[in-house]
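Researcher: Please predict.
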Amino acid sequence: MADPALVILLCGKRKCGKDYIASRLQELLGDCVSVLHLSQPLKEQYAKEHSLNAARLMDSSGYKETYRKDMIRWGEEKRALDSGYFCRLAAEDADRPVWLVCDARRPTDMEYFQRLYRCTTVRVVASEGVRR
């Protein structure tokens, strides 16, 4: 994994449209982009440690909601020990000059990338009505 020329950090509240903006940016920027989801390695590791279905934790089904609170608690415990843990896992396979981090919702996630790479942060904002 080579260092990226640029990391674009999309941040914002849950369900504000970060994935939509990421898909539009990916369309505009084309093949130079590696898309990183910090939630993916979190869900994969959580599933592995708790003998759960990782694919079902990734979708928008009620399955994920059943485990959401405990998964958040578990993720915070992991971050307390190593704040860059999920960031490193997400970046393992990134092989393009631009990294697009779709879900940098925590300050520690943004700090990790900002400390190591040249970054641009895009805050995505949506009204409560849109987020529902």
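Model: The radius of gyration is 15 Å.
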